[in-house]
Design brief:
alpha/beta; Rossmann fold; eight-stranded mixed sheet; 13% strand
Length: 484
């Protein structure tokens, strides 16, 4: 395989292709940009020129440096023009047949040492290389949008990918200033697989009329610490794009209900309400202020919420308890006491749900208590696992499942989710912090409540929870023995 990658061919003049070409040119590579549409190539090159010129105007880049980068870029009119490429990065349409046909043609055109990569976000690398004579040189090289800004790159090995190719791609991405993580080819790879519950649980809450979209997004953003609420994020990504990835992962896992697409999202796509790019999606983007949907509340005062997470409070006769996956009504009936359940919170916003048996004054007592603690209070309908807790538990469960199946290392999983989608914590580190027994309990209660496989705990979660309980029991026994 080629040791020095001087010439980079990028196939696809869309947003991702143009972004990848720009990154490669910034590294001083000779970049060939190919698309079946010459207009798409012209548009991509013009877009790169405009972005670089904008940086010059803002004093972020010198005019000389801009010109150097632009000199590295050249259009390719035919696939045959890519014959001298050391590395091909395909960023064409997300259709398996198109990608298979492209690489079959490239195998004839390019030299034996040329590395082949696909920027696919969810299609199997193994399947893309199925008809190649030498699938060993094919791997995934999944950049995140916008490619010039986002540091994460998933380097994906298909079943035939040569390990030396993976190593070379990792080293090359490091030289490009990126943060590479490696994984096996699986539907959604790391990020698009583990992130599915972030969207799915929000859509379910919206469908179940738990709270309006703005409240759901505020809860995940301000209490959960996520950079943007899931519903607003799907509007920004594009409802059609996000829905297509969900469907791809769902079918890739043989219709596993963990990845079940949302009928509400399908309705938006069918109506052409694709989000910000069409003007309307979950939100009306002609009226909404985007900054109001993307301002995560930084953790400030965690003491009270953390203490609550370890037990419960009595507030004027009202039982206030951190959610463990059961509804407030269930707890109120069991303990014969007015109950308010509180969601997981990393910041100064608290999400609460009152039992259906509470009086208005009971619930107001809890609201008043948190407001006196300096908290913003969001009230939602009584809902098992609330909004943040069930979402985080599902993300952690999916990360553990990927780890157990050898998709990626624990370190790469956490790096990918922090870097690729800006999660406040890596899911595995988050699970250890919350406590594996608590995560397991939340999911078991959800599975019992719904009677669905969607919430089934991963075997590795059960093992970790069991070992955590054993460690606690062993420590307690040792302490008791030391005082005898």
């Amino acid at each position: 395989m080629a040791q020095t990658l001087h010439t980079i061919a990028v196939i696809g003049g869309g947003t991702m292709g143009a972004g990848i070409a720009e990154i490669a040119a910034q590294q001083g590579k000779s970049v060939l940009l190919y698309d079946i549409s010459s207009a798409a190539i012209d548009k991509a090159l013009d877009g790169i020129r405009q972005r670089l010129s904008s940086r010059v105007q803002r004093g972020k880049l010198s005019a000389a440096r801009r010109d150097e980068i632009l000199m590295c870029l050249a259009p390719a009119q035919r696939l045959e023009d890519l014959a001298q490429a050391d590395l091909v990065i395909e960023a064409a349409a997300e259709k398996l047949e198109i990608k298979q046909q492209l690489f079959q043609k490239l195998e004839v055109v390019c030299g034996e040492d040329t590395l082949f990569t696909s920027n696919t976000s969810s299609i199997s690398i193994t399947e893309i290389g199925r008809y190649l004579k030498r699938p060993q040189r094919l791997a995934g090289l999944h950049f995140f949008n916008p490619a010039p800004v986002m540091k994460l790159v998933e380097v994906v090995r298909g079943i035939e990918s040569d390990e030396t190719v993976i190593t070379q791609l990792v080293e090359e991405m490091q030289r490009w200033g990126k943060q590479p993580v490696t994984c096996r080819s699986t539907p959604g790879f790391i990020v698009n697989r583990i992130a599915r519950p972030f969207y799915a649980e929000a859509w379910r809450a919206l469908e179940d009329y738990v709270a309006p979209a703005q409240v759901i997004d505020r809860a995940l953003r301000e209490a959960g610490g996520f950079a943007m609420g899931p519903l607003a994020l799907t509007d920004l990504i594009g409802q059609d794009v996000n829905f297509a990835v969900t469907c791809s992962v769902y079918h890739g896992f043989w219709q596993d209900r963990r990845f079940l697409p949302s009928l509400a999202q399908q309705e938006l796509v069918s109506a052409g309400r694709l989000g910000k790019k069409s003007g309307r999606g979950v939100y009306d983007w002609s009226a909404v202020q985007p900054e109001a949907l993307a301002e995560p509340l930084l953790p400030q005062r965690e003491q009270q919420v953390q203490r609550l997470a370890d037990g419960e409070l009595d507030v004027e006769g009202v039982r206030v308890v951190a959610t463990q996956g059961e509804t407030a009504t269930c707890l109120a009936v069991r303990y014969q006491q007015p109950t308010v359940v509180v969601d997981l919170s990393l910041g100064d916003t608290v999400v609460i749900a009152p039992a259906a048996t509470n009086t208005a004054s009971h619930t107001e007592s809890a609201v008043r208590y948190f407001q006196q603690q300096g908290k913003q209070v969001l009230r939602i309908a009584d809902y098992p696992g609330m909004l943040v807790t069930r979402t985080v538990a599902m993300i952690i469960n999916e990360a553990l499942d990927a780890l157990q199946k050898g998709i990626a290392s624990a370190e790469d999983i956490d790096i990918a989710m922090r870097t690729g989608v800006n999660y406040p914590k890596g899911p595995l580190a988050w699970g250890a912090e919350l406590g594996w027994p608590r995560v397991l309990q939340v999911l078991e209660h959800l599975q019992q409540y719904y009677g669905e496989e969607r919430y089934r705990p991963c075997p590795l979660l059960r093992q970790k929870a069991l070992l955590a309980r054993y460690a606690t029991l062993h420590t307690t026994t040792s302490l008791e023995a030391s005082h005898v």
